[in-house]
């Protein structure tokens, strides 16, 4: 059975969990044996978190959630491929998740590689090239806005991916147009654990927060 939460309610739960994580007052919900057994036959997560594969960006930890709460997809640099689109379609059509978070983070290695490729006009070899090629449009969009640092580019890339997911996936676009799902760009700070909201598409309004930029990569 799908969750009864609206996109707004789903975001408020995640934001509250992240605040507990930042404050060091985590609840570690839904991680006991009884809850595990209750989920054996079905799932009803209240959000998809499509984020970077970086080992420091464990979605369930930074949002203080547990088993069955979030449907997690991860690729380096949160780049889209057919497997990601299929996973998103499953989450939207089969389990009717009301919120998609595109989760980036500061000092991202994949975005750094794309920035370096832009600066040196030299692409990395083998399959790393595939990652960089998928991030390069975001680097170009950032440069067009006068953004040259890695962390500014991370935010631009996260925002770009919000719109790319909606534009590329018919299932996501349909759910957003029908008011069933929202897509939100979120950037995570490795140093303090906080999240900063970027572009949002769909019926959700993030709480007011600081608009200070992430610290520059050194």
TrEMBL record:
Residues 198-218 are annotated as: Disordered. PROSITE patterns: PROK_CO2_ANHYDRASE_1, PROK_CO2_ANHYDRASE_2. Its EC number is 4.2.1.1. Keywords: Lyase, Zinc. Pfam families: Pro_CA (PF00484). Signal peptide: none annotated. CDD domains: beta_CA_cladeC. The keyword Zinc applies. Reversible hydration of carbon dioxide. This is Carbonic anhydrase. It comes from Enteractinococcus fodinae.
